[in-house]
Amino acid sequence: MNCKNCKKDIGHESNYCSYCGARVIRNRLTFGNLLSHFSEEFLNYDNRFVQTIIAMVTKPEAVIRSYISGTRKKYVNVISFFAIAITLSGLQMFLLQKFFPEALDFSSISQPGTEDINKGIFDFIQEYQSIAMMLNVPFYALISRIVFIREKKFRYNYTEHLVVFMYILAQLSIFGVIIMIAGAACGLDVGLISMILGVFQIIYSGYCLKRIFNLDWPNFILRSLIFFGVLLVLGVLFTVLFIVIAKYTGVLDSMIEAQKQAIEAAKQVK
Q: How high is the pLDDT of residue 200?
């Protein structure tokens, strides 16, 4: 019998190919074994995906350090984990529009007349969500590299900092999908949930970095202040870039026009 993947000869009783490691599939594909395979890959407690999510809560340093050091069998590799997170983020918007359209309301966090502007910003972010998520990784990795440039025990290079934030942002995205859908189901709007997620992102990212770099509290506070300082400077630069892109794509003009219409409508009501 030959392996269907690498075409090498393997024993008839083998369950895995000794050359490429692929699992030997003997049964014809049916809906039942397709569901069984999905369950084995993603839903079982013992599978690597679930174990990675759990470990990124209880011991994120173990997941990230092991990948950087070359031990990559126990947890999902960083590329796959990040790709799954991006896929789930795309699914999140579909579920909100399909089942919770009332959640796409920004009145709770908007000043009168600015609801359309906030919705325009949100729609722009959602449209380019995958790109934004990918761009966030090098952005935060750059800040982290600057903040921890003098770190002696864990002196990671820029690529290794990319791995750190790919894992962190993927985990945040997966939790964000769960929290967003659960919040929408409870009647909360996307704007309010996004504010909650923003606070959660700061807390979780700090928690991970503290454990990854084994920081004591004084050192953690100092690094956090430096991190936010660098974030502020780079944030201003990227905000300017966002405005330029929004202007080029026409989103900015739409937002300005919506604001004018809202002001006129408010005047007529008065």
A: 94
The reported pLDDT for the residue numbered 123 is: 63
Residue at token pair 């990918």: 134
d(CA 167, CA 68): 11
Q: Return contacts of 124-129, CB within 8 angstroms, 24+ apart.
A: 124/246, 124/249, 124/251, 126/93, 129/89, 129/90, 129/93
- Cβ burial of 43 (10 Å; 0-12, 13-18, 19+) is exposed
DSSP state at residue 10: -
Question: How many Å apart are CA 128 and CA 126, to the nearest integer?
Answer: 5
Residue 168 burial by Cβ neighbours in a 10 Å radius (0-12, 13-18, 19+) = buried
The two three-digit tokens of residue 131, written as one number: 């790109």
Instruction: Give the C-alpha separation, 86 to 78, whole Å.
Output: 12
Q: How large is the angle between the packed helices 251-269 and 217-249, nearest 10 degrees? A: 90
**Mean pLDDT, contiguous 10-residue spans, the chain (270 residues):** 79 77 72 66 66 95 94 88 90 84 64 56 64 88 92 89 96 93 87 87 96 94 94 87 82 68 62
Please name the residues in contact with 231: beta carbons below 8 A apart, sequence gap of 6 or more: 143
CB 173 within 8 A of CB 132: no
The whole-number pLDDT of residue 226 equals 94
Instruction: Write down the number of H helices and E strands in the chain.
Output: 10, 0
Q: Which helix (H) or strand (E) holds 246?
A: helix 217-249
Residue type, 242: F
